[in-house]
């Protein structure tokens, strides 16, 4: 085809030989995150909030019997978003939850089978109000993340099994505060999924500062104390009450409902002010 002149696009496409190009495969991986309530055993305290992610255990090679994010190959007749929703339903039995594209991972050696590029998504849900029963090989893992100037130390725990990994970070661009991530230690997670997890956690931390995305993880009605707990769990730090109230002042509206029965005086219930959940 080199040097040949065509008089129309139709003639060019008829003569086009795609076999001269190397092939690669596309997958999608989905980081499903939740901040939900767990009993503290102390009726005088607010129910404790736990940050968790959903993992599935692989039943075939590569990485057989290791945990991973729900994922799968993209079909030739579907878009990325369609593939992500299909994989979400097939791998976890979840549907109709908030989902947005996160990042594309393209390290040459990220998959031992072939050259695979993965477009990841992050999904948000309040797992306490899920009506769908999870797939048998899926499990929620509570997340504990410790961060310093050079790395993230992450522990995932589902009550029966513990997963630990370390991801290093290096400042890429001082003007935008962007980092490159690298897996330093990982024994139990498949592929490069520690990088997906860290990327998603950082995206969520950044977005709750300037969007209403957090309300995709909240029940319809909540106290301000519960909402503050969710912000604090995601950000990994305590917030002063006056500062928090300024953050959410235009995001919530007080209802005539109250919450009782937790060992303290009744608390007013609020709801998200927006008519629809937005990014």
Protein architecture, described:
The chain has helices at 9-15, 80-92, 193-207, 224-235, 241-248, and strands at 25-38, 48-57, 67-68, 71-73, 98-105, 116-124, 138-147, 151-157, 162-173, 178-186, 252-259, 267-272. The protein is α+β, with helices and mostly antiparallel strands. Among the domains are: 25-140 and 200-207, Nucleoside Triphosphate Pyrophosphohydrolase, CATH 3.90.79.10; 213-272, Arc Repressor Mutant, subunit A (Orthogonal Bundle). Strands 1, 2, 3, 4, 5, 6, 7, 8, 9 and 10 form a ten-stranded mixed β-sheet that branches. The protein starts with 8 loop residues before the first helix and ends in a 7-residue tail after the last strand.
What top-tier CATH class of the domain at 25-140 and 200-207 fits best?
A: Alpha Beta
Could you say which overall geometry the principal axes of the C-alpha atoms support? globular
Which band does the percent of strand residues land in?
35-45%
Oligomer: single chain
Strand segment count: 12
Average residue pLDDT: 87
Number of helices: 5
Whole-angstrom Rg: 22 Å
Can you tell me the residue ranges where pLDDT is under 50 for at least 5 consecutive residues? none
CATH topology of the domain at 25-140 and 200-207: Nucleoside Triphosphate Pyrophosphohydrolase
Summarize the structure.
With 279 residues, the chain is an alpha+beta fold.
Key phrases:
279 residues, alpha+beta, Nucleoside Triphosphate Pyrophosphohydrolase, Arc Repressor Mutant, subunit A, two-stranded antiparallel ribbon, 5 helices
């Amino acid at each position: 085809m080199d040097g040949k002149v065509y008089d129309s696009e139709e003639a060019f496409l008829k003569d086009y030989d795609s076999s001269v190009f190397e092939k690669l495969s596309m997958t999608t991986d989905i980081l499903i995150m939740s901040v939900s309530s767990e009993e503290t055993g102390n009726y005088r305290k607010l129910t404790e909030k736990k940050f968790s992610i959903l993992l599935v255990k692989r039943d075939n090679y590569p990485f057989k019997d290791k945990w991973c994010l729900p994922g799968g190959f993209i079909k030739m007749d579907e878009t990325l978003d369609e593939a992500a929703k299909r994989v979400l339903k097939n791998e976890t039995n979840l549907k109709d939850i908030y989902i947005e594209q996160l990042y594309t991972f393209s390290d040459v050696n990220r998959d031992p089978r072939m050259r695979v590029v993965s477009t990841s998504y992050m999904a948000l849900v309040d797992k306490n109000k899920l009506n769908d029963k999870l797939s048998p090989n899926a499990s929620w893992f509570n997340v504990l993340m410790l961060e310093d100037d050079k790395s993230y130390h992450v522990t995932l725990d589902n009550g029966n099994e513990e997963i630990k990994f370390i991801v290093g970070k290096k400042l890429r661009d001082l003007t935008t505060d962007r980092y490159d991530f690298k897996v330093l230690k990982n024994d139990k997670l498949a592929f490069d999924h520690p990088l997906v997890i860290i990327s998603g956690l950082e995206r969520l931390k950044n977005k709750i500062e300037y969007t209403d995305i957090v309300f995709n993880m909240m029940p319809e009605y909540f106290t301000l104390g519960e909402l503050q707990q969710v912000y604090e769990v995601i950000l990994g730090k305590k917030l002063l009450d006056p500062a928090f109230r300024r953050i959410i002042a235009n995001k919530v509206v007080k209802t005539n409902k109250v919450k009782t029965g937790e060992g303290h005086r009744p608390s007013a219930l609020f709801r998200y002010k927006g008519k629809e959940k937005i990014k």
